[in-house]
Amino acid sequence: MAAVRSFAPVVSEGASVLILGSMPGEASLRAGQYYAHERNAFWRIMGDLLGAGPSLSYRERLDRISAAGIALWDVIADCERNGSLDADIVGASVHVNDFAWFFAAYPGVRRVYFNGAAAETHFRRHVLPKLSGLNIRLVRLPSTSPAHAAKGYSEKLAAWSSIVAG
């Protein structure tokens, strides 16, 4: 089993939205970038919604989403997993990120969108019980991962448009 570690959050002072994945996949970890797998639809969706598409440099994409008030992070700080699939995460090895710190440091974040079911499940199981008094809207969106083929791109884009609609 391989030990994997997530990235620091991408967040700016004006953030009002937090998009949470579960844990970066192998391609992202190798590249040191969120959603780096070429078939992951995340940056294509961000391109259609915010002009932060894959044709831009990674830094430019991050700047665009930050300018739109969107932060990126993962629920899991570190865990054991072979491969990239959420199903391969060893449950007993999961350590979550410090969300009490995050929400205290960025009090403007009022909406959290989960990139798929695993992110939501880990957040609700490991994080939410430790948070109190937060007025945050939690919404699960379809995973942008190529492993989630149940919905096509147009369906995913329609669902993800809620991050800009409010």
Report on this structure.
The chain is of the alpha/beta class and 166 residues long. The protein has a single domain (3-165), classed as Uracil-DNA Glycosylase, subunit E, CATH 3.40.470.10. Helix content is 33%, strand content 18%. The strands form 2 sheets. Strands 3-2-6-7 form a 4-stranded parallel β-sheet. β6, α5 and β7 form a beta-alpha-beta unit. The protein is globular. The termini are far apart.
Top keywords for this entry?
166 residues; alpha/beta; Uracil-DNA Glycosylase, subunit E; four-stranded parallel sheet; three-stranded antiparallel sheet; globular
In short:
By secondary structure, this protein is an alpha/beta fold. It is built from seven helices and seven strands, in the order E-E-H-H-H-E-E-E-H-E-H-E-H-H. The protein has a single domain (3-165), classed as Uracil-DNA glycosylase-like domain (Uracil-DNA Glycosylase, subunit E, 3-Layer(aba) Sandwich).
By CATH reckoning, the class would read Alpha Beta
Major β-sheet profile:
4 strands, parallel
Annotation, overall tally of beta strands: 7
> In whole angstroms, how far apart are the ends?
40 Å
Low-confidence stretches: none
Question: Could you give the order of the helices and strands?
Answer: EEHHHEEEHEHEHH
Strand content range: 15-25%
